[in-house]
Write a structure and sequence with these properties.
The complex is a heterodimer. By secondary structure, chain A is an all-alpha fold. Chain A has a single domain, classed as Helix Hairpins (Orthogonal Bundle), CATH 1.10.287. Chain A has three helices and no strands. Chain B has a domain of 83 residues. Helices cover 72% and strands 0% of the residues of chain B. In chain B, α1 runs antiparallel to α3. Chain B starts with a helix and ends in a 10-residue tail after the last helix. The chains are: A mainly alpha, B mainly alpha. At the A-B interface, α1, α2 and α3 of A face α1, α3 and α4 of B.
Chain lengths: 89, 123
């Protein structure tokens, strides 16, 4: 039952990744694209967690934690660049 | 693993997946940027918390040890999601991204753009 649920939830997350990709391609303004990228990395954390559950190994949480940290830093850097025209002043 | 624990894990995982889907659907379908900002930063964070709680219960039962990494990721996301949403809203204000017509308090966008406090009514 658990493996079936994991496959179903992975399908749901893949559909939402496709929706984010559509918004990333379509997005009329730059902040829309940043928001789509932000949501993309958060959803990919969920996908990696599900893969770790499927394999039954706790090794994949390290990569999820790394993606969470680097994703936040990159979002903050892009927003800062849009706001001020510079990243480190 | 008993069937009860499995049902609980499956319920958490399904809830998480549905909330993640809901957040991305809102990101795709809502009318302007400021309404679109709500869907991924609220619904997706809740959905990911559901996924993380499910996997925490699984590893707690399967390997008989407390895995703290999930709690760490949940805490990190709960802290960083409002901060990044605030920064994206600031940059959207700065770039004068269009709002829907019925947005209330549109005159406040100018003062927020110039980083001033809102005008007080009294005095």
């Amino acid at each position: 039952m658990l493996s079936t649920t994991i496959i179903i939830v992975s399908t749901l997350i893949c559909i939402s990744l496709i929706m984010n990709l559509l918004r990333l391609l379509r997005g009329p303004d730059l902040p829309d694209r940043i928001l789509a990228l932000d949501t993309l990395y958060i959803n990919s954390i969920g996908l990696i967690l599900l893969f770790g559950l499927y394999k039954g190994s706790a090794l994949y949480f390290e990569s999820a934690l790394l993606i969470a940290m680097l994703g936040f830093v990159s979002t903050a850097a892009i927003c800062k660049y849009l706001l001020r025209g510079d990243i480190i002043e | 693993m008993s069937i009860t624990v499995e049902i609980i894990i499956c319920a958490f995982l399904l809830m998480g997946g549905l909330f993640v889907l809901l957040g991305s659907f809102g990101l795709l379908r809502l009318p302007d940027f400021y309404t679109r900002l709500h869907a991924p930063t609220k619904a997706t964070t809740l959905g990911l918390a559901g996924l993380l709680i499910g996997s925490m219960i699984y590893f707690f039962v399967a390997e008989q040890r407390l895995v703290v990494h999930e709690l760490l990721i949940t805490l990190f996301l709960l802290i960083t999601a409002p901060v990044s949403a605030h920064m994206m809203a600031k940059s959207a204000l700065h770039h004068r991204v269009k709002m829907v017509k019925h947005t209330q308090g549109q005159q406040l966008a100018n003062t927020a753009r110039k980083r001033q406090p809102p005008p007080s009514d009294g005095a």
